[in-house]
Amino acid sequence: MASTKEIKRRIKSVKNTKKITKAMELVAASKMKRAVSSTLASRLYAEYSWEVLTSIAKNTEKITHPLFIEREVKNVLLVLITSNRGLCGAYNSQVIKKVLHLIKDENKDVNIEIISIGKKGDNVMRRIGQKVIASFFELPNNISIRDIVPISELLIKEFNLLNYDKVLVAYTDFISALTQKPNIKQVIPVSKTELKELIDTLGSHSEKEDKERKISKNEVKTDYLFEGDQEALIGSLAEKLTRIQIYQMFLESNASEQSSRMVAMKNASEAAGEMIDDLTLVFNKARQSNITREISEISAGMASVS
């Protein structure tokens, strides 16, 4: 059995660790509150953006804008959203594992290249030899749509230059503080099916019912009168919607990261508390054993003298 001095040193060490994890839990909880608020606030706008675009796409004869044209897939650009730091549970490993499965299951004739957001995903992709064409590490915690404009413009530009035939984003959906779901979504070319699935997964059950009711009201064909260049207008809407989708995915990932870190640090604090209790019990037993032994030695000495 370890000495009481050594056990006291371990107890002190675990208490210091618990203080750190508790502080990190509180910081993550504060950041999560802001991130979740931003995520929920933008979902409604993402929904209405989708409704506007699909209504126009459904009620116009033909759309020839490049962002709507699906091509034979030979080159795929995948945006991987992870964190710069660890200590956030399975947040990074889940989305990275989903990307690795996609790379493994994809047709060998299809070339997949990566844009990494966050150091964790970037390190894994470079380690396995996957080509990373760009990396973004310095995005702020309270991300705004202005911060993702360079990324969205890069994606649209690469697709329009025919360098890639499809653009995917791997991110983590925020469902609740305890549940986050890794997802891979197609953002370019603009797919009405993909956009509908995206809004369905982002909204709550009641929001889905409201959306279904709204969509049922919009079943009547609407005749649109375009002033100016119709293709330019639709192209501008498509680019804005693509930007909104990417922004929403960043918000979802940020909320998922902070909630995962909060839960991980909460579990670490609880584990530290249990370890302190166990060590305190061991310490008390060791101290009691020492006291008993000393009493026995004193009694034996008195018996030998008498």
TrEMBL record:
MF GO annotations: ATP binding; proton-transporting ATP synthase activity, rotational mechanism
Q: Does the keyword Ion transport apply?
A: yes
Q: Which GO terms describe its cellular component?
A: plasma membrane; proton-transporting ATP synthase complex
Topology relative to the lipid bilayer, per the entry, is: Peripheral membrane protein
Keywords, in A-Z order:
ATP synthesis, Cell membrane, CF(1), Hydrogen ion transport, Ion transport, Membrane, Transport
Q: What is an example of a Pfam family matching this protein?
A: ATP-synt
* InterPro entries on file: ATP_synth_F1_ATPase_gsu, ATP_synth_F1_gsu
Alphabetized SUPFAM superfamilies for the sequence? ATP synthase (F1-ATPase), gamma subunit
Q: Which CDD domains match?
A: F1-ATPase_gamma
- The principal location of this protein is membrane
A biological-process GO annotation = proton motive force-driven plasma membrane ATP synthesis
Highest taxon of the source?
Bacteria
Assembly:
F-type ATPases have 2 components, CF(1) - the catalytic core - and CF(0) - the membrane proton channel. CF(1) has five subunits: alpha(3), beta(3), gamma(1), delta(1), epsilon(1). CF(0) has three main subunits: a, b and c.
Its biological purpose: Produces ATP from ADP in the presence of a proton gradient across the membrane. The gamma chain is believed to be important in regulating ATPase activity and the flow of protons through the CF(0) complex.
HAMAP family xrefs: ATP_synth_gamma_bact (MF_00815)
Family classification: Belongs to the ATPase gamma chain family.
Q: What is this protein called?
A: ATP synthase gamma chain
